[in-house]
Design goal:
It comes from Nocardioides mesophilus. It is an enzyme of class 5 (isomerase). It catalyses: [protein]-peptidylproline (omega=180) = [protein]-peptidylproline (omega=0). Its EC number is 5.2.1.8. This is Peptidyl-prolyl cis-trans isomerase. The protein has 2 domains: 161 residues, Chitinase A, domain 3; 137 residues, Chitinase A, domain 3 (Roll). With 320 residues, it is mostly beta strands. It is elongated. Helix content is 9%, strand content 33%. Strand 11 and strand 12 form a beta hairpin. About 8% of the residues have low confidence. The two termini are 18 Å apart. The strands form 4 sheets. Strands 1, 4, 5, 6, 7, 8 and 9 form a 7-stranded mixed beta sheet that branches. Strands 10, 13, 14, 15, 16, 17 and 18 form a 7-stranded antiparallel beta sheet that branches. The protein has 4 helices and 18 strands.
C-alpha cells in the first residue's frame, strides 16, 4: 500500500502512544437511551457526526466506573474488532473541565485498528459493534484507562475522570467487487500498457511510453465503474500494482493477496492517491503516474529510490 511515511498527525501519534501505555481494561456499561444519564452527567455534546464536535464539561464530572452511552446511532456497517476504522475523537479531563484532544481540530479523521494496544480498551468496548455514523460518549476513572500513572502528557491524573466522545466516521466497505467492472476506456497511445494474467495485474509494458517520465500527476481512466463514488474521509477497498517508472518489477502489489482497505483523504496515503481516488466510482480502474512530489519525494523506500516517479494500477473495489 502506497502509504505516506510519517503521515500520521501529531494528534494521532499521541493517541496511539497513550493507548499503548494503558493499564486498565475496565468494563463498559452502556446506557439504554441517549438521554441525559449518569454516563453524561455534567457533559454537553454538540455538532453533527463527521462534521464537528463541541464538548462542554461542567466540572467536576464524576463517575463510579466505566460508563458509555450511544448519543447518535448511525446506519452504516458496524465496527469490527481487529479491523480498521476512521474515528474523530475527543478526550477531556472531567475533573478540571479541560480539553486534552479533539481530532476535529486537526481536520481529517484518524485511522485506527480496533485492537488493544492501538486504542484505549474503554473505547474498544464502547465502539466495537456500533454502526458507522454513530457517536458514543464514555466516562471513566483515569486509572481504569491508563493505570496508576494516569496520562500526564494529556494533563489527566490517575484520580481524574476521563471523558471520551468518539465519532465513527467510516469502516471498511462490506460490498466488495471481485474485480473492476464497467465501461472499458481507450488510454492514450503513449501510456504504459497494463499486463494481466488470469485477471490479475502482473506488470507494465513500457515500449509505447516516453523514456522520460511525466513531470505532473497524471491519472488515466482505464475502466469507468458504475457504482457509488469514493469520498475523501472514508474507507475504500483497492487492488493495486505499483512500479517505479520504467521498471518491470513491482515494489508492492495486492493482486497476490487480499484487497486492501484504507482511508483516503486523511493523510495516510501518498498525495497522488489522496488527490486521485475521491470521486472514482466503485468498479473503476485507473492508471496513476505520480512524480516524486506526489509520492515519496527525496525519501527512499524499500524498492523505491529517492526522487522516483511511480506508476500504479488501482482498482476501486469497494467504497463506504
Amino acid at each position: 500500500m502506497p502509504r505516506r511515511p510519517l503521515a500520521m498527525s501529531v494528534v494521532s501519534v499521541l493517541l496511539l502512544a497513550t493507548a499503548a501505555c494503558g493499564g486498565g481494561s475496565g468494563s463498559s456499561e452502556k446506557a439504554d437511551t441517549a438521554s441525559d444519564t449518569k454516563a453524561l452527567a455534567g457533559v454537553s455534546v454538540d455538532g453533527e457526526v463527521g462534521t464537528g464536535l463541541e464538548v462542554k464539561l461542567d466540572k467536576p464530572v464524576k463517575t463510579d466506573g466505566v460508563k458509555s452511552e450511544v448519543l447518535t446511532t448511525g446506519d452504516g456497517d458496524p465496527v469490527k474488532a481487529n479491523e480498521v476504522a476512521l474515528l474523530q475523537l475527543y478526550i477531556g479531563n472531567g475533573t478540571s473541565g479541560q480539553k486534552a484532544v479533539n481530532t476535529y481540530d486537526a481536520g481529517p479523521p484518524v485511522q485506527v485498528t480496533m485492537s488493544e494496544g492501538q486504542l484505549f480498551q474503554v473505547l474498544l468496548d464502547a465502539v466495537v459493534g456500533e454502526p458507522a455514523g454513530s457517536r458514543v460518549a464514555i466516562t471513566a476513572p483515569a486509572s481504569d484507562v491508563w493505570g496508576a500513572q494516569g496520562a500526564p502528557q494529556l494533563k489527566i491524573g490517575p484520580d481524574d475522570t476521563a471523558v471520551f466522545v468518539a465519532d465513527i466516521v467510516s469502516v471498511p466497505p462490506t460490498e466488495v467487487l471481485d474485480g473492476p467492472e464497467g465501461k472499458q476506456l481507450e488510454p492514450p497511445a503513449d501510456a504504459p500498457t497494463v499486463i494481466e494474467k488470469d485477471g490479475a495485474v502482473t506488470g507494465f509494458d513500457w515500449s509505447t511510453a516516453p523514456e522520460k517520465a511525466p513531470q505532473k500527476l497524471t491519472v488515466i481512466p482505464l475502466i469507468e465503474g458504475e457504482g457509488p463514488p469514493a469520498r475523501a474521509g472514508s474507507m475504500v477497498t483497492f487492488d493495486y500494482f505499483g512500479s517505479v517508472y520504467g521498471s518491470k518489477k513491482p515494489f508492492d502489489e495486492s493482486y497476490s493477496r487480499e484487497p486492501a482497505a484504507f482511508g483516503v483523504g486523511v493523510g495516510g496515503l501518498i498525495p497522488a492517491w489522496d488527490k486521485s481516488i475521491p470521486g472514482l466510482k466503485r468498479g473503476s480502474r485507473v492508471l496513476i503516474i505520480a512524480p516524486p512530489g506526489e509520492a515519496y519525494g527525496d525519501q527512499p523506500r524499500e524498492g523505491i529510490p529517492a526522487n522516483s516517479t511511480l506508476v500504479f494500477v488501482v482498482d476501486v473495489l469497494g467504497v463506504s
